[in-house]
Amino acid sequence: MMRRDRLANSLMIPGTACLVGCGGGGGPNPSGTLEATEVDIAAGLAAQVVEVRTQLGDRVSAGDTLVVLDTEILELQRAQAEATRRSLRVQRRLAEEDLRQAERGLELAQTTLARLEVLLAQGSTTRQQVDDLTAKRDVAAIQASAARERLNLFEAEELKLTAALAVFDRQIEDGVVISPAAGTALVRAVEPGERTLPGAVLLRIADLRRMELRVFLGEEDLDRVRVGEEVAVLVDALEGEERTGVVTWVSDQAEFTPKNAQTRNARAQLVYAVKVRLENPDGRLHIGMPAEIRLEGGTRVE
To answer: Which domain range does residue 239 map to?
Structure first.
């Protein structure tokens, strides 16, 4: 899933030459366009779309199933990998038993050889008997080492299959695309029967219950806003109806006025970005609506 904010710079309508207050309380109010945080819902695997449960404009909650992808092949591959792992576990148990027997044989050969060496020192046995048992001891050691290596191999293969099963589980889980947050569907980019690729956007949602207005202020007007303070917001489409917004952020770095300001002089001004949050319980506010904040002593620009 890819998360992105609509940039107010790209949404500014003509007339943004008046978006910067002129100070002294008599200049125009800063204006911009309403935004909302949008979330792109992307596919996690390449698969065919089986079902799309969300229509444009639908309200979804966090955890809702949005899209169902075809994971039948993945499920069959997982079942095959699981069967192979079970077979390896049987072979591993046999290898463990082989190792125990080989270690017991090696231990017995070492104990017997130690006794014969004592007898050889006492003259009660022959060098040939000791050499024969030494050779048997060496064979038992080789057998024990080989059994240990086989067991290590089975353990490594089982770990590999366990990891592969975890990958299959995650891919099968990705076949059911759920909403990471509450919001309204703005874009529906796929239909049942289409095939998606990893990272391809399936849906785009935004929580329209809370909007954001980004405006720009000159240095001389920064003391007229404070983070956490309420400000009056006038939305053009609501015929001047006043809404209450809350200043959530004031940039600490100056930047030039956005390039879509109409005049060269306006573009040359250094300004500071300000974000204002507006609640939208009645749903009358929409992305892209022009709006302005009313600064104390300012005048509304027609």
So the answer is: 2-36+208-294
